[in-house]
Write a structure and sequence with these properties.
The protein has 3 domains: 76 residues, RNA polymerase sigma factor, region 2, helix turn helix motif (Rna Polymerase Sigma Factor, Chain: A); 70 residues, Arc Repressor Mutant, subunit A, CATH 1.10.10; 26 residues. Helix content is 74%, strand content 0%. The protein has 8 helices and no strands. Helix 3 crosses helix 6. One of its GO terms (biological process) is DNA-templated transcription initiation. This is RNA polymerase sigma factor. One of its GO terms (molecular function) is DNA binding.
């Protein structure tokens, strides 16, 4: 089993690096995160059940390690700062600028959406595998990928503002539900009086 376990770890390293880079947005931190996740996996190899989804297990370990590290850093630094190199561009070529813009847009996505998008689009994970590795429902996984794609498209094409009306539609729906509840309560109240 040890040989198979080690072979599986080696084969998943490239995908773990991509996920770690999407989470940390820094190559050196991503490499450290992958190394820490692999160490955690090696220490916990007895808890892995052969025949189950090894990739999802490893992605979950990496994600949990990232969250643990993030909690430790939160007390000492501001994690929401966007690195300066993402805000500037030295390239003159349009393609290079587009890639930088995409990198900036990816960095702006909420962590859960960015992670979901990277795991499905770059890693080729199914929604089921994504749900297993992130500990959410399949519908939530699909929603995260959909929202990430939609927001990236809006930012990259400039066709939609950052707030494209979803809040207004949700607010209008809530108002309608509240109005109907009030009408129902008034109707019941009038029925009791009569």
């Amino acid at each position: 089993m040890a040989d198979t376990f080690h072979t599986q770890i080696v084969s998943i390293l490239p995908k773990l690096r991509v996920q770690a880079l999407a989470l940390t947005r820094n190559r050196a931190q991503a490499e450290d995160l992958v190394q820490d996740a692999v160490c955690n996996a090696l220490n916990a190899r007895d808890s892995f059940i052969p025949g189950t989804n090894f990739a999802a297990w490893m992605h979950r370990i990496l994600r949990n390690r990232f969250i643990s590290d993030l909690r430790k850093q939160r007390a000492t630094s501001d994690i929401d700062d966007v690195p300066g190199e993402l805000l500037s561009s030295k390239a003159d070529h349009e393609d290079r600028l587009a890639v930088k813009d995409l990198g900036y847009a990816l960095a702006r996505l909420p962590d859960d959406q960015r992670e979901a998008l990277v795991m499905v689009v770059l890693h080729g994970m199914s929604y089921q595998e994504l749900a297993e590795s992130t500990g959410c429902a399949v519908g939530t996984a699909k929603s995260r990928v959909f929202r990430a794609r939609r927001q990236l498209e809006a930012w990259m094409t400039g066709e939609l503002p950052e707030d494209d009306g979803l809040r207004q539609r949700a607010s209008a729906l809530r108002n309608e539900v509240d109005r109907r509840k009030m009408m129902g309560a008034a109707t019941r109240s009038n029925g009791l009086r009569g």
